[in-house]
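[Structure tokenization] protein backbone as discrete codes
[Encoding] learned vocabulary of local backbone shapes
[Protein] chain in single-letter code, fold in tokens
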Amino acid sequence: LKMSWFWLYLPLHLLMVTCLCHSIKAPTTSSQQSFKTDLFNFYHSLILADGKETTIHLLKDIPKRYYFVLEEGRVLAPFSITVTPCDVPIEWSILVYKSPPGKAAPGDHDTQEVSKSQKASSMVSTIFNYKGNSIETYMGMPSHSALYLLEFLSTERDTHITVYLTADTTSGHLYPELPTDPRIDVLGIGPTTVTLAWKHSPSVLQHTDSIQYCLLVNEKHNYKSLCAAETAIRSSGMKLPPTLALSLSPYLLEPQQVMILSNSELSIISKASSGEVRQVCVGTKNTYTVPNLSPSTQYYFDVFIVNLLTNASAAYTGTFARTLEEPEPKVTELKDGKVIHVVLDGKKQKLYSLQYQARHKKIHFTFQLCRGQIRVHITRNGKTVASENLSGLRYFSLKGKPLDAYLVQLRSTEESNSSVKVQASPHFHKPLFPLLPESLKIKSFSKLRTCRSVTIAWLGTQEESKYCVYRKRIEEDQIWRELQSADRCSGPESRHKSEKVLCKYFYDLNLQRAVTTETIKGLQAGTLYLFDVYLFGPSGIPVRYHSKVVKTRKKC
């Protein structure tokens, strides 16, 4: 074993001369076969496997050599070698060594030495060499009694490559086939989307179940192989699961990764210091619209055709595109005391802008969240004065100067539509909403429930106000939908007249006693009811308490 490592690091020309001397001493046909057998046994750990993809790790500036020989009795047919660099450019070459034919001619010692030197140079030849980081395939016709040597060298840094040798090019392809035109077409570009298309691979048409397209999106550059892309992502400080892991469980993901499954498409989004990297497998579809991109940003797109059985892949010619700039949002003017109802599209994630010019030092902004989740951002003369997620009813009292310019920007924080009511006014303006209690929850008393009635209670305020109670019969499977989809800004005008129970006025200067109860009668046994309470202030705009679901007793 120690001797084999010694021979491994000998310079190539010394190795060949040594092998040549050995073969010249035994020039017969049987000796030639014995020579090859001995050599194979000597270098058994460095023989390149036939019909199998081999991963080879290269150390910087240290060449690595692999050998292969074609069977003596096989029919002459083309063989191929495919090398895939997984990182930096490499140098690789194929050398062929042919056994010397017959004995050397007799003569003096000097003549024999010259003859040996001539034979050495004529029997060792380089038939192919390449330098770069592209996937390269060599195909050639074999020679009998020939030993082939592959030499690989990385001069930039440690790296790894994959090598695939096959002596049977007619039995199928390990690597999926690319179409004659492997380019990716950009069909459309928007501020946050890019639509791509590419021609079908012949492999997809033949093996639909085991072939799929995977798309890689990043902000750095294109990659010439899936192997190179995964290596680059790992070097940025993350671990990217292999392509096959895309069809497996989320537990394979790292903390920096997010997996999204929608419309039978599986996406892995990796967060790196160099930007976001997405890997999306789309089955056998040859068009795809990449969503949720950043405006005015250049992205690089690579498509790989992947064999799910072997994990081998082939790369289309990558492309790039720059997303469009986000159009300037339409700005709506806020007027003193006027209420604006804003509906936000959660899917498009667009900003809705409102502007207001102050006429007084103190300004009062009021927001009533009607549905969904919304983030508000307020600036005064270009400087941020408030920014937060809205919840229920929210007031902002701001102090500045007359003629200050305020800009209010609203954005939905979820994919479903959201809505909010907004008012801006001087601080002394008549309030839009009534004085609110400490809590807007409705309480029910379990011990007071009967088969025909339910008793509920809610908090009031120190200000005399009007309260209206509504009820609605619902089913078990409607509870979640009713509670989640309720429009918290809608008033009793949206309710059916038959749902109204009563309206009453009350207040108490002592807040600890500002509580009222009501027993709702005429209900059915064992039935679910949804109860709502609306509070009306001086402006007439209602505030809806949180809905309460109560079930009457089944037996009494």
